[in-house]
Amino acid sequence: MAAAAAEEAAPGGADAIRDGFAELERQQELLASCTRLYQQLTEHFGSLERGIKSRSDSLRARRRVVELRASRRLDALRRRELSIDASVKLALSRLDALAKSPAPKRDREDGDGPPSPPPPPPPSDDVAEGLAALCAAMDPAGFLAFVVERRKEV
Questions:
Q1: pTM here?
Q2: Where is this region: Disordered (predicted)?
Q3: Residue 72 above 90 pLDDT?
Q4: Are 146 and 131 in contact (CB under 8 A)?
Q5: Which of residues 147 and 73 earns the better pLDDT score?
Q6: Which of 41, 59, 137, 151 is deepest in the core (most CB within 10 A)?
Q7: Distance (Å, rounded) from C-alpha 23 to C-alpha 29?
Q8: What is the DSSP letter of 150?
Q9: How far apart, in whole angstroms, are the C-alpha atoms of residue 94 and residue 100?
Q10: How far apart are CA 43 and CA 129, in angstroms?
Q11: Mind listing the pLDDT tens digit for each residue in 141-154?
C-alpha cells in the first residue's frame, strides 16, 4: 500500500515539480527582464545626466562671456562718463576764462542791434590768398562781396 500510495503521489508530485520549475523559469525570465529594464533605465538616466551637465557647462560658459562683456561695457561707460566730466570741466574753465577776459569793443555804445561785421581782409592780388583769408575769418558776407567783386577772376 505504501508503494501504491507513493506511486499515486509521484505522478501528482511530478506535476507539482514541473509546475514549480515552470514557475521558477517564469520568475527567472521576469528577473532577467527587470534587470534589462533597469540597465536600460540606468543608461537612459546616465545619458540624461550627461546632457544636463553638458548644457549646464554651456550655460555657465555663456554666463561668464555675458558677464565679461557686461563688465567691459560698464568700464567703457565709466570711462566715457569720466571723459564727459573732464570735457565739461574744461568747457566751464574756458567759459570762466572768457567771462574774465575783457569784452571786445563795440562800434555802438548803446549795445542795441547786431554787432558790426568784422573788417574785410586786406585786398590781395592773389585770389587763393583772399579766399583762404575769408575762409579763415568765416565771413560769409565778405566771401560774397569777394566773389561779386572778382567774379571774372574766379
A1: 0.41
A2: 99-129
A3: yes
A4: yes
A5: 73
A6: 137
A7: 10
A8: T
A9: 10
A10: 89
A11: 887 887 788 776 65
